[in-house]
Every structure is written in structure tokens, then in C-alpha cells.
Amino acid sequence: MQDYMKKTLDYYETNAEDYKREWTDEFLANYDFTIPDIFLSYLPNGASILDLGCGTGRDSKYFLNRGYKVTAVDGSKEFCKMASAFLNMPVRELNFLDMDYNNEFDGVFACASLLHLDNKDLINVLERTHKSLKNTGILYCSFKLGSDTRFDEKSRFYNDMTEEKFNAILKKLNVKYDLLKTWESNQYKSPTKFINFILRSA
């Protein structure tokens, strides 16, 4: 594992309980599920979903409650334990660079998870994600809006994104996605701007 990834994962391992309090214990009261609903609007009822970077299991729970088949994975051992208990199902501890799924999912939901990858590793994971999707499968991913790569004050690595930067990354892939939707949003009850992408494997 590269050093920048380890620093980010170390932060989440140490602070997982804080995320549990915020996103699991009162998740229904505190979270706007508009973005998961947009993602679901592109999928058939009962579709199979990979929650890539599931965290505490907030969105996986939402999908399961609506009758979707969910596979939840995260790179943090602590998050996997929490999400497994919350969802009452196994959650796989998985470094995104080790993804080994093949033609298994109708959709991949990567909410604020791929933003911790540098460009080289992001290209790798987007190709692996494409392989995991069934034909014309849907990928949702989100990033903080901006053009920088940086460490924040908590030593987490961020690869901020614009539409132009993301399109340039897509052109470097050895697989093909069609970009269906791009929009900006405020998330997590904060003024932080995110940019969101819906893609379809081609």
C-alpha cells in the first residue's frame, strides 16, 4: 500500500467511532438521500449494487431497505466491522486496487471514496470498476470540487476534481464509460462543494 493511502486509512481506523455516531446512530434523521436516489433512478428494481467504500454502511442500509442486492466493501477494518454489525451481513475489507469482481454488478456506488486516490491509482480503480460491472452498468462517484491534490489537516489525501479534469482521466482509461450526468452539490451538512458523476459502462 502506498504511503498516501496508509495515512488516509490510518485516520479512518482511528476515528471510525466518530463516523458511526454521525452516520449510523441517527442516519435517517441526519442525511439527505437525494444522491442515492439519483443513482437508483438509473438501475432496475432489485439490481445488484457494489457499495465501494461503504464506511459505516449508511447507504448500503438504504439500498437494502429498498430491495436491492448489496455487496459492501471498505478499505478500513474498523468500518467493515461496524458496517457488518449495522447491516447484519458480511462486509469485505478490500483495498480498491485489489478489486477482483468480474461482470457482477448492475451498479457501483462510490460516494466520496475514490477521492482519496491519486490519478494513477484512480485510473486503475476505474478500470477495475468497469470490469466489475455488467454490460451498460452504472457507476456513481463523487469528489470534492477543485483541481488540487493535497493532504488535509487530518493527513487524509484528496484528489479534488473538476469536470474537465475527470474527462481527461476518462480519456486515459483502457475501457470506455459514457458520462451521463454531472452536477455539483453540498454534502454532509457542510458548505463543502462536491462534484458528482454518473457513468455507464460501454
Rg, alpha carbons: 16 Å
Described by its quaternary structure, the protein is: single chain
Number-wise, the strands total 9
Residue-averaged pLDDT: 92
CATH superfamily of one domain: Vaccinia Virus protein VP39
What's the order of the H and E elements? HHHEHEHEEHEEEHEE
**Main sheet attributes: strand count, strand direction, barrel closure:** 7 strands, mixed
Biggest β-sheet: strands ordered side by side in the sheet: 3-2-1-4-5-9-8
> What amount of the residues lies in strands?
25-35%
At the first level of CATH, the class of one domain is: Alpha Beta
Count of alpha/pi helices? 7
The SS-based structural class is alpha/beta
* CATH topology descriptor of one domain: Rossmann fold
CATH architecture of one domain: 3-Layer(aba) Sandwich
- Weakly predicted, low-confidence segments: none
Helix content: 25-40%
* Shape category: globular
- State the distance separating the first and last CA atoms: 30 Å
Structural notes for this entry:
The protein has 202 residues and is an alpha/beta fold. It has a domain at 1-10 and 54-142: Vaccinia Virus protein VP39 (Rossmann fold), CATH 3.40.50. Helix content is 36%, strand content 28%. The protein has seven helices and nine strands. The protein has helices at residues 3-23, 27-30, 34-40, 58-65, 77-87, 119-132, 163-170; strands at residues 48-52, 69-74, 92-93, 105-110, 133-144, 149-151, 157-159, 177-186, 193-201. The strands form two sheets. A seven-stranded mixed beta sheet has the order 3-2-1-4-5-9-8. α4 links the parallel β1 and β2. α1 runs parallel beside α5. The longest helix has 21 residues, at 3-23. The two termini are 30 Å apart. The model has no long low-confidence stretch (mean pLDDT 92).
